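User: If only I could read backbone structure tokens as easily as an amino acid sequence. Those tokens are not coordinates but codes from a learned vocabulary of shapes. Could you go through the record with me and say what the backbone is doing? Here is the record:
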Amino acid sequence: MNAAELAALIDHTLLAPTATAAQVQELVAEGAKLGCYSVCVSPNQLPVVVPPQLHLATVCGFPSGAHAALVKVAEAADSIAKGADEVDMVVNLRQVFEGRFDLVQAEIAAVKAAVGTNVLKVIIESAALDDAQIVGCCEAAKAAGADFVKTSTGFHPAGGASVHAVKLMRETVGSQMGVKASGGIRTAESALEMVSAGANRLGLSASAKILAELAGN
């Protein structure tokens, strides 16, 4: 995979709560220059104007996932109304740890209804879960009509993406859904490992460094 092919899988990301509008504009310019698939920003930054070749993603219930379901639904709907193409929502981890995957599915379905035909990615915080919980989250997301499952927020102390989690997520959802790896991916080698494991989208903040490394610059 060359740098241009990898760039086409990247959500170029800036989710620091201290990010300014000027920094978001720098992100957009860099994402377009690099040939990334999208830029991903916090919902308080919306609306954001992006060039036609670049998609706009945001997050929902971020980063804890501990928001009430109706808050996540309202946040997702507001983001779509403000021009977001894709929404990355965090699952309710309490429900995951209690084994209430019926509730996890219901919440995802409610957010998907708010997102409509736009893309919904479900962040499961895989580093904090065991294999059975990862599978349960992925099955719930699939049953709820989500478009992607995603490893991590990048904010959880348990860590970010792993090759093992990505493989398990891909095995669980099959070819019908996307798998996004995010959190702690800082080298070209790591990015390519995630793609080989089954990821077809990457959430990266170090996009420029990784692509330059892959290009041999």
